């Protein structure tokens, strides 16, 4: 199979179709509108339905309906629109339905701006919605990975009957790279649990499963604990001997990869731990890091540090955790290297390791 | 409505479902329904049906919000 | 004269208050679905409101929609399963307050679904707050001195909002007498038939008493509907087979 | 690895020029990234895109040092000249870029792309002329191979136009002539 | 001043009025509807405006408008409705406007149920909305504290020009306790920044301040860092010599207080650290805990543990952190004591302290 | 004949595309506010859409509303500051798609605000996706083969939705000729006057070209409005002083 | 500290009885918490509220051991009898609670509250009769003081009704008589 | 419209604002406007006004989306 040059958004959309997605309901917002535009012509070609909803609220609830009926369904949005999806996501999670949601992150709270950012980390990983649920969160760092993780997201959503999130960002979404696309998958929508008329059987109640499960608290905790154990994904780059390990996902991980290359060429032992799943956070990845590591340095395009908490807990706070924040600005890989060097040279210890 | 047809069909009551709202009593065209002194398990007073007055029109079935009345063939 | 049995779709006793109109609508809807042979093909999108209580008692497939979004959920189901009979079951607060946009857009797009909207002029489930349908002067827990239309608006007439749109079927009934209940049944039947023949969006609004939150006896509630509520919300069929009637 | 920036007015086809470069590079086995600039392009102003072309995986798609700058108008020279590396190349559309002083540690290929494309009766082809000049000046690919790549690209889209190849070749020629 | 017996919701509402709140826009939802019901008659008495909005979205945006115009304004909701507020909250935060939001937590994701829970912790403390902002989050544990924190919330909202959240729950909201109410406060709405017509001056732009602040990333980080440093609030109960310290807020902290009393009466050295602000999390409170503490035990009415991360970081993972979850069930204080005893007796060490 | 100067409220050049109708509406609105002496008392609730670009160029107090919520934000302002002249400035996508409910509820409650709705039949700012107002057959980036009304609905006529409500003033104008632009000015003036005398909700919808996303020259855009758009969206005053006109 | 549960049908005024108890206790300087039960009260079924009354701050408003149970109907006895502490008190509305076997490690005051209130022509006052019985049986407050408290409570609301005091006293009497 | 009144008032153009949309040219009743060869700083071709033909009706002011035209008193 040959490469195709594709925009992140288009590739994501095509990958969804090939993963068997047959319903999309959503609302335009930059920088994700290409997903709608692409699917508006592509889904009908495969007998699927594309519907531009009158709002994000309507879109996510159409997805809820289509998913309840057994079909692979998806919506996508960004920033303000992602906030509007939260109630619907919480319902889908509570009904234990599969569905895929895409958040193409953009910068800022409120209206913000349309360029890349990674500020929705907490919202994505800790349930921006109310109650007790988590989503599997996949963070692609390239157009190819957008494709690969989209397929995985649909499969995992169905396996766990839980919504999955693709957390992309404006840069991955708008850039073009060569990609290889997977084969078209046909997925049977006639799940035993699907709402499609009872056809002589028992009637099905697609609603919060809490009403019907005894010790629901225990059940739901076990469900998410098992996902947390089984679904951690990451890529480690030269962490075995690193003095400083960068921690970064998505677009910033690529800047970090360059930083590692630059550093190594200068004899500086820099490594990178790249979470591919953000929830569950890949704590297991930290076991591969050499135990003499001097510090972790999180790198994210966010005005407030967000990865830091997860890294602190993952490394059990035995190692200092510093942050390097790109907010509105894309950091230069060389600046990251400099920061790492200055951490290495600094005598200053992190407070919690002092006492 | 003849006595004959009344023989074939009659109104059956599921008293345990009654919530005592009184809609049936209000709407019965023959004043065949009235509140009795008995209560059901929920504590609602039972609706008494006077078979003599009843013309099996099933209006009580139509208005009852709680599925108390059925028009059935006499067994 | 035939038997009149309780529909099998009513798998458990309902959980509504004494005298609540929802129970009547439930029975009528169940009868229609059974009579049309659609019990096995029906999927309901259930609103948040007292209607919620049907989830365990009314034996069709259900999807519990978020408050106000029943129409969007129904659209999601119907678009992927056009062979199903897809309906919403909603209160007036759900469909006309928080869900106004979803309700209207289903009509604007002429989605091939049937909306059942039970208008009791109040937020029943949450304890009697004002609804967009509450009448001027009506006392509710959030309009304790009576609804002041100058500050909160006139009652919302959803049929007026929809009847200029190219939809399939619109009707308004009431459960305040046996005669009107029979008409409601006819309306629901026509609405569902419209859907099943691909005739586009159908909506049946049903005036219904909420004795609990109106703080009235059932008798007074019924009188109130007949004497007052119906004046604001006239009954009848407003659009049939996509054509406006004279009503 | 080569870092290329392609910039100009919104309507000058700079994104397409970048796309062509990316596509043909891909077909010839290169790894590439193509990143558009943001901003209110829709409402006029300068558009740009930024490519990295290399033989192994492209790590960071962003860069602040430009190896080759394709500048379709003066504003692009103003915006990006400073970022060109010493020894780097600027392809300047001399029809619009006039009286500019260029840094003297870089190579500048001035090509009257707008004029040439007008002359060839392919007014929307100025971007391809510029691309030709870029290939010619940098030697990234053999000129003929790249021209074939362009033909294949447009051919696949069913938009083959022999004038495109001509534009390309004229641009390449102009750069080689320098 | 004498005591008045009040429901949590009513007291909260009256306290808002006395704190100068003059606009409420919101939508009914159990268990917070009494707030609307109370204000529907109370606000007009003081010349304020009560508006039952057609939805939560509309309500929060009315609040945004009234706050932009300089008035103290508030909305309240619960669970699903709180999710719907997130976009609006993010806008209010980005515009740096004061406003108070109330979330009376109820159980469950999706529709859930109307009884008490503490599952919205992450949503409340980490910004359920998109982008880079935090809210000051106050967690009352009694009706009196509901009153006290409401006044504080309005003051702090204005001081920092940032939305503040009162995180209550169904039990605090529905229970009655005697309260003392503060005096009525009159607040001048004619702030210099308020949108009220430019009246000869410069025109005012109430929008994301990011568009007008240089190095906005640095600015906003400094803002939230300073709040985090200055606004931590907590109550510590017998932590000076405790072997086990319970960490709990709101309603569960009261169960824990009883547990502490029971334990102490049995000679077991149990203590309680009660966060009053959830953001900022009161890390400083941990300095008052004796350094020999054997473990922290978080107690929350949630199916998934949420406090745990913050406690781990606050205690720098030097001490094991265990959780005790009440989900749909209210735990008995004696069960908490038993759990504490079993932790004390257990030989098993927490993994991260093993290696 | 008097001077015709550029209003002082236009503090900076606008940022719209060449030929965009927003610029015309901006000038007209600024003129009306100045002529009525309201420039100092005006507060605008600004939608998300190309109108956003006015935040720095149009010198009234502004509140940037979330997409679709401009009416709710305006209501919040007006209810606490009834002395201000409060208006929304919105696109058709903002006011009629995502914001349909907020827009309609401001009218349903007859809120004393003025809504300016610029209908260009498309989502301009986000690059030309279909709007609820797009015409059947119209090609947009999300209806690449032309809008299929059977699947996506007929164009939404907001005046039809509002004209049965007890509102103060409703009109639809167009900026396609000088004459119509002058009418637009009159409509906006009447709408704002209605508000300032407490006459209730006023809404002025304005047909406007988006040459960029229509992918047409300005001339073709204007021709298109005159020949086609106006047929779906007739011009005129529909409600005046709370009374329906014959339009 | 006393833990009191008050339970009955939705319409029997159990929440009000609890409220009265809470209010008068507060006026007499007690610390109290009052917690309603949830559930679909609106649609019938059993309602209940749970009070703690003490001299110092009430820590936990929830409890699983009941000191005093005010049971307005049979269901309430069924639901809550098991939770009453040994030596605790049940006030049972004997008009509705018939043929119940009570645990023998608790004190039971059977008061025909519904009958008494009917007899006094104050049919909605059964809850106050029960309250009287509770005060009488537990001795929580002097009966007269508490009766004054009730009068003051209703007086402040402008709903004074001498029948309420009578109901209360009859209940107290009935309990004392036992 | 007389030459006299034209003397008192005339059209002033803010060329730098022009985006070359052509609306003024389309709507000028006297064909007094045309595209010139010059461009402004933004690169848009300037609109040339023929004072002879112009009747100072300000229709160009009315239609111009970019505030290019003002009718002012002759200085
Ligand atoms: C997002 C959200 N907001 C509010 C609620 C609370 N709520 C539940 S039902 C309801 C109103 C019900 O009224 P209606 O739809 O008229 O139904 P009824 O009970 O009167 O039949 C409300 C406001 C909710 N569950 N979710
Ligand atoms: C919640 C949310 N959803 C979507 C968007 C993206 N968005 C911005 S403007 C816009 C549509 C603008 O169209 P319209 O209101 O018609 O204004 P125009 O630009 O055409 O004048 C959209 C969808 C957003 N900013 N916020
Ligand atoms: S069947 Fe008719 S007559 Fe008989 S009880 Fe029912 S309503 Fe009355
Ligand atoms: S209508 Fe039904 S529920 Fe009501 S009283 Fe009659 S039988 Fe009972
Ligand atoms: S509250 Fe009203 S609508 Fe709800 S079940 Fe009771 S009577 Fe029916
Ligand atoms: S995109 Fe359209 S609406 Fe937006 S500024 Fe350009 S022409 Fe105007
Ligand atoms: S003022 Fe009138 S005549 Fe003169 S240029 Fe303008 S439009 Fe033409
Ligand atoms: S209308 Fe204005 S912007 Fe357009 S060409 Fe004429 S002067 Fe220029
Ligand atoms: Mg209702
Ligand atoms: Mg538009």
From TrEMBL, chains A, E:
GO terms for molecular function: oxidoreductase activity. Residues 242-326 form the Pyruvate:ferredoxin oxidoreductase core domain. The keyword Ribonucleoprotein does not apply. InterPro entries: 2-oxoacid_oxidoreductase (IPR052368), PFOR_II (IPR033412), Pyrv_Fd/Flavodoxin_OxRdtase_N (IPR002880), THDP-binding (IPR029061), Transketo_C/PFOR_II (IPR009014). CDD domains: TPP_PYR_PFOR_IOR-alpha_like (cd07034). Residues 14-206 form the Pyruvate flavodoxin/ferredoxin oxidoreductase pyrimidine binding domain. The keyword Oxidoreductase applies. It holds the Pfam family PFOR_II. Keywords: Oxidoreductase. This is 2-oxoglutarate ferredoxin oxidoreductase subunit alpha. It comes from Desulforhopalus singaporensis.
From TrEMBL, chains B, H:
This is 2-oxoglutarate ferredoxin oxidoreductase subunit delta. GO terms for molecular function: iron-sulfur cluster binding; metal ion binding. It comes from Desulforhopalus singaporensis. Residues 9-38, 45-74 form the 4Fe-4S ferredoxin-type domain. InterPro entries: 4Fe4S_Fe-S-bd (IPR017896), 4Fe4S_Fe_S_CS (IPR017900), Polyferredoxin-like_ET (IPR052977). Pfam families: Fer4_7. The lineage of its organism: Bacteria, Pseudomonadati, Thermodesulfobacteriota, Desulfobulbia, Desulfobulbales. Keywords: Iron, Iron-sulfur, Metal-binding.
TrEMBL record, chains C, F:
The keyword Ribosomal protein does not apply. One of its GO terms (molecular function) is thiamine pyrophosphate binding. GO terms for biological process: cellular respiration; small molecule metabolic process. Residues 57-184 form the Thiamine pyrophosphate enzyme TPP-binding domain. This is 2-oxoglutarate ferredoxin oxidoreductase subunit beta. InterPro entries: 2-oxoacid:Fd_oxidoreductase (IPR051457), THDP-binding (IPR029061), TPP_enzyme_TPP-bd (IPR011766). SUPFAM superfamilies: Thiamin diphosphate-binding fold (THDP-binding) (SSF52518). The lineage of its organism: Bacteria, Pseudomonadati, Thermodesulfobacteriota, Desulfobulbia, Desulfobulbales. PANTHER family: 2-OXOGLUTARATE OXIDOREDUCTASE SUBUNIT KORB-RELATED (PTHR48084), SUBUNIT OF PYRUVATE:FLAVODOXIN OXIDOREDUCTASE (PTHR48084:SF3). Keywords: Oxidoreductase.
TrEMBL record, chains D, G:
GO terms for molecular function: oxidoreductase activity, acting on the aldehyde or oxo group of donors. The keyword Oxidoreductase applies. It holds the Pfam family POR. Residues 10-173 form the Pyruvate/ketoisovalerate oxidoreductase catalytic domain. Keywords: Oxidoreductase. This is 2-oxoglutarate ferredoxin oxidoreductase subunit gamma. It comes from Desulforhopalus singaporensis. The lineage of its organism: Bacteria, Pseudomonadati, Thermodesulfobacteriota, Desulfobulbia, Desulfobulbales.
